Structure formats: structure tokens, C-alpha cells
Amino acid sequence: MIENLVIVESPAKAKTIEKFLGKDYKVVSCFGHIRDLATKNLGVDIDNNFEPTYIVSPDKKKLVTELKKLSKEAKTIWLAADEDREGEAIAWHLYDALNLKNKETKRIVFHEITKDAIQKAILNPREIDLNLVDAQQARRILDRLVGFELSPVLWKKIKPSLSAGRVQSVAVRLIAEREKEIMNFQASLSYKTTGTFLNTTDTAFTAILPKNKKDKKEILDLLEACKTADFTVSNKTTKPAKKSPSAPFTTSTLQQEASRKFGFSVAQTMSVAQKLYEAGKITYMRTDSVNLSSLALNTAKAVIEKEFGKEYAKTRNFATKSKGAQEAHEAIRPTYIDKATVAGTDQEKKLYSLIWKRTVASQMSEAQLEKTNVQIAISNHSDTFTAQGEVLLFDGFLKLYRESVDEENEENDTNRLPKIEIGDKLDVQEIISQQKFTHHPARYTEASLVKKMEELGIGRPSTYAPTISTIQKRGYVIKESREGQQREVELIRLVEQEIVAKLKKENYGAEKNKLFPTDIGLIVNDFLVEHFDKILDYNFTATAEKNLDTIAEGKAQWQEMMHDFYTPFHKKIETTLETAERASGERFLGDDPKTGKPVIVRIGRFGPMVQMGVSISKEEEKEGKEKPKFASLLKGQSLGTITFEEALKLFDLPRDLGEYENKKVVAAIGRFGPYIRHDGKFVSLKKDIDDVMTVELDRAIELIEEKKKLDRERFIKAFEEEDIQVLNGRWGPYIKHKKKNFKIPKDVEAKDLTLEDCLELIKNPYKGKAKKKAKKK
DNA sequence: CAGTGAGCGAGCTTCCGCTTGACTT
């Protein structure tokens, strides 16, 4: 008999809480949601007032059986899922699925995992809030209806297996629209003027003209005037300023900072954080809250006073700024703030240290600055130079932590100014006017997309990383780096009474790990925006959230809200299915100069392609009419931007390179990119080195030989009589038998394996640490 | 798994939000 059974969502949490509660309490975890809508027939009975059908998720069946058993034995059951909409629903699903209505069941909540908070929670149990549960059901059903009615429209009108949803489609829209802004962006040029001056004691500093000039003649006039001008300090102002630390980390700010400082992908950040959490080193990592427990505040204060001194400590409470925050947890912070470092992998150490610094800095004093602004008049010209200086009077939190910023753009014009007073006469060393291009808006990184999604209130801490991986998996978006290009800008310099102009090369347009929309992403987005503007509206989720809040307050019925949404939505689905054209992104490029046939680009069954000639029907083919020719677009090319010339070149593939060892050598492009085929074997071309359009026979032979050598090294041994090979693979040596692969235990030398060993491993496959084979389809 | 771009059309795909492992040739 168990006295008390406490069910929480996370197993790591269960472990900690059990320690706090003592031996009368058994604490177990339900691993999040245990049931979900059935996938058959939507899982929603539209005609029966949107009645949902819930089933226990397949991977939770065993767990639910186990929980049922435990709850039968227990006297009192405490449902301690998180205090937010999803948590309330989890509690209710447990109540329902475990059949707890005849048991003593209590609902408790806490926002921080401290002994104090848990004990308080136990003293204040309540009922399950059915209004909040209804709000969750409404959210779930809305998402199901949108996703499962919208996606099939795409299958019919664009391509099978595509997907659309309240969150992912808006995420794709952000990226698609940003790309269009960039495509339509016209860079403009203007001259930025910087002067280097000497103060009365000959110390140099720089000042700029606050406004850039477009006109070269104006610049030349100015520089000409400066040749003979006197420069006088006409004004000087100083004012105090302060900088305050940022709030402790939430999921989204942690993802952003880890991306900016370490280049982590959002998934990487989450998996490292998960490890730290499971090891008890940080608090829960999927949170939208910036709150710290009072215990954490006290420890932070003590740590700061000890490490930096009393004047560096300042206890603060931060308020959330993000839309729709539910704040069921604390901010992400070290469990023990007095530990500045932890053991672990490099990544774990780095991320922990970042979390520690951010948390501690959030409880430190502001930095005190003094900002100085100096105006320098030109005696024979109406323009005025401006110098800006910043002096740090007290470093405060900056002693520990400095947040990074997104844009690598714009050099900083602030410098440390020497002693300058009003009326000082200054000498000029040089004045440089350099042409500057305006920049297009920055493409999104994974992390800056998360930031934007959070601003719009779409997605949740637990879904940011999975959503970003979904839109990439569907092929809507691709994360890429692209090389920059060079261009020339003019630089006009006045030094020692002489004006000299020259051209300077600069790099621009290089992108590192940015999100680009693909052709299919752009086509799907255009289609959805055209036909389902309401769902694709950036405010759709925010508005829905307001309705959900009303339901949670008990002031509205969820079925009514669903009805109001669904009726027009479903009608739109039907008319779109009936009336909308198939969307293929088709574009006519021109007529082939050799044959006169039309050349078009469009999305085909296998992605973006170029087609020469008109499509024909089966009958026409029988009659001997000529079929059109097809070729896939290369990586980096897109339907919207490919030129006629580039498109024509694609028909040059496959290219015949000649013969080697009496066999033909051919260069072409396949599913995995550019390759060379020789004697029935394929060799990939080297990215960034080889060009499939120009590669020659000599190089091809080099690659073929290289591959042959690798294949030889791949081979360890074979037992031909049993069709067994021992080979070197990506994850080390393995056994290959009749097209199936088998693992080799770590402590076994692959080259010492005997035939008997191999047969044994094939009969009883070694599974590593795994206990059982998980079926997954 | 390195061709293909369509033919009949069965049967499949798909959502968001909670949680962790399992597992890749």
C-alpha cells in the first residue's frame, strides 16, 4: 500500500521532489501528455459538437498501465502537472485515463522546485480547473482541424506529404517574406565622412559627419573647404547613463545567446541543456518565465557580495515581456548558484557557464556611464563634425557578462575621448569619405526566428526547436551558408592638404547558417497566403489566445468558439479544393535558340526542374510525338531567379567525359548531388572544389581512384561462403550479411572476428545498451 | 541510393505541445 502517489511530468523533477517529501510519498512521472486525439477521422466529430476522441499514445501504453496499477494501490493521488493550460489538461487526462473518480485525488501546483514551495503546495490542494482544461482542448482541436484540413489541400494542389499548420506555416511565411524583401531591396550608396582630429595636447580621436552625403560634388566641396579651415569645438555635453542587465534566461533567450556566442543550433542548445537538467545542474530548460525563486535570489546575492563586493549586488525581479507567457516554471538558472562551473563535456561547461553568468549578472548593479557629445565647427563650411565618447564610471554587471547582439552590422562610432573643451582649436590629421551601401534586412538564423516567433506568440518553449526542424524536414526552408561577393567602393581622402580618390574592394553578402526559403516553400507560402490569409495572419494565434483565455475564465464555451472558427474555415477549404489552380511555380523563360521549343521552369514530382518542349498526353506519345526534355535545378538555383542561359546549360548533363579502363566516364547530377559514374560505380564530386559543368577526365580519374582506395580500406575481411563481410562504416566496423547490417560489441577487435563469432552475432544481434527493440515506423 | 517528371488509382502523408530515450551504415 502506498500512502501518497504524486504524479509529475518530468522524471528528473520526480527524483528531486521525492527527496523533499520523504518516505510517505512515492513520486512518479507521466512523461508529458499521455493521450492525444486519434488520427483516424480527424479525432474530432464535427457534427457532434466537435466531440474529441482521445486515445492513449502508443508509446505511453505501458506507462499508463503501470500508473494505473500504482494508483490502485495508493490511498491519495496528487496530480502535480505544471500549472499552465497543458499541465491542467495532463492532470485531467490522468484523472480520466487512470479512472481516479472514486479515489482521493488532489491537484497541486508549484512554480519552483524548492522544498518550501513543494510543502506549501501539498498544504494547498485544489480541484482540476475544468475551464482551463476546456481551453486546452479547444487549442488542441483547433490545431488538429487546421493542420488536418489544410495539409490535404496542399497534397492535391501542390505535392503529396506537404504540411501546413498554425505555427509552422507562419514560421515559413516569415522566412519567405524576408527573402522577398531582400530580393526587392535596392541598395543605395552614400558617402560616410570620418575625421581624425588632435586635441590641444596632440591626442587623436575620431569624429563623423552625422549625415551621409549622396552627392560626390558635395563631398569634394567639403574636403576642399577643410584644406584651409579652422576646426573649433563649438559645443560639448556630458550626461550620465546607465545600462541594466538582461533578465535571466528563458528558452528563447538561451537559444539566441547560445547561437550568437557559440554558434549552437537551437536543437543543440536544447539537448545540451537537457543533459544539464537531468544531471540536476540547472532548472527546467523549457520555460517562458524570467522569475527566480527567493532561494535563488538570496544565493545570488551572497555569491555576488563575496565575489565582487557589496556594491555589485542588486536584487531584481523581472517581469515577462513575451506574449502568451504561461510561466509555469522558473527562469533557466543553475540549481546551485554558488557553483560557477561544472564538470561535463565542453559544450555542457560552456552552456552552464553562460547560464551561470546570465543569472548572476541579472542580480548585479547597473553599469554607470558618462556619455559625451562634442560638436566641431568648420570655419568655412556649414557642416559640423560630431564625436561621441563613453566612459565607464562603474562596471556593475558588465564585470561578469555582456549580452551579444544579432546584427554583425555597423561599426561602432563611439570611442574614448581625450580631454576636449568648448573653444579648443583642433588640428585635423585626415578626413576620409567612404562610400557605404545600405544593407538589406538580415536573413533569419534559427535563433532569430525563434525570437520573432516568441514576439508573435506562436509556438511554445517546448516546440521552438521541433518546429524549426519540421520546416526544414518538409523542405520549405534550408539552413545554408553562402559565400560573399566583392564589389568596389570609392574612398576619398584628405591628408596633408591633398585630396586623393581611390577604389577599395569590400566583401558583402556572405551568409553563415541562415534560413533560406526553398522553391517549394515559396510556392506553398504564396498558395496559403492567397487562399487562407486568416490562418497565415501574424495575429491569428494572438487572437485565438484571447478567445482561449475567455474560455479559461469560464466566460465562453469552447464549442461555440470552435463553431465560429470552423464554419467559415471549412467552407474556404471546400471552395479552394474546387476552384484553386494547381500551384507549380511555372515560369516561361524563352524559346530554345536551337530547336525553337519553349523552355519553362516549374516544380515537378521530384522538385524544381526545367522543361524543354510541351508536355504531351499518352495518346500523343503513341502517335510518335516527341516527349519534352527535363532536367533538375542545381542546388542554389531557384525557380524565381534562374536565368534562361543557366536553364539551357542544365540540358548539357549528363556529360560524357571520355573513357577510362575501357569504360565510359560520365558526369551528372543525382539525388545526392553531382557525381561521376564509371563502370557502374558512383563517385560524388567534391563540394566547392569540382564543378559538374567543367570537370574533366583527369580529375574524374583522380576521384575514381580515391574512391577505390577508400573502398579497399573499408574492407576488413570476408567469409564468402556465408556471404559475410566485415566492413568499416561511418560508426566504426560492422558486419554485413545478406544486405543486413549488424553491430560489433565495442570490446571486440573487428579484424580478429572468426566466422563463428560472426554467425553468433548474426543469430543474436548485439544491441549495445538498448534493452529492447523499439518498433518505429 | 545517383532513371524519373505519368498512367489507373489504392493507401499513405498531415497538426501542436507535453515529455524522454532509441537509434542511425
What does this entry look like structurally?
The protein has 777 residues and is α+β, with helices and mostly antiparallel strands. 35% of the residues lie in helices and 26% in strands. The chain contains 21 helices and 31 strands. Strands 9, 10, 11, 12, 13, 14, 15, 17 and 18 form a nine-stranded mixed sheet that branches. α3 (85-97) crosses α5 (130-157), α5 (130-157) packs parallel to α17 and α8 packs antiparallel against α12 (446-456). The two termini are 39 Å apart. The model is unreliable at 769-777 (pLDDT under 50). The chain binds one DNA strand of 25 nucleotides through α3, α5, β22, β25 and β26.
Sequence-ordered SSE layout with sheet pairings:
Blueprint: E1 2-8, H1 11-21, E2 25-29, E3 35-37, E4 44-45, E5 51-52, E6 54-56, H2 61-73, E7 74-79, H3 85-97, E8 104-107, H4 115-123, H5 130-157, H6 168-184, E9 189-198, E10 204-208, H7 216-228, E11 231-243, H8 251-262, H9 266-278, H10 294-307, H11 346-361, E12 367-378, E13 381-394, E14 414-415, E15 425-437, H12 446-456, H13 464-473, E16 477-482, E17 485-495, E18 498-508, E19 511-517, H14 519-531, H15 533-536, H16 540-552, H17 558-579, E20 587-591, E21 598-604, E22 607-612, H18 618-622, E23 629-632, H19 644-649, E24 655-660, E25 663-670, E26 673-678, E27 681-684, H20 697-714, E28 715-719, E29 724-729, E30 732-737, E31 740-742, H21 755-763
Parallel strand pairs: 1-2, 1-7, 7-8, 13-14
Antiparallel strand pairs: 3-6, 4-5, 9-10, 9-15, 11-12, 11-15, 12-13, 15-17, 16-19, 17-18, 20-21, 21-22, 22-23, 24-25, 25-26, 26-27, 28-29, 29-30, 30-31
Helix pairs in contact: 3-5, 5-16, 5-17, 6-13, 6-14, 8-12, 9-11
This protein binds one DNA strand of 25 nucleotides through α3, α5, β22, β25 and β26.
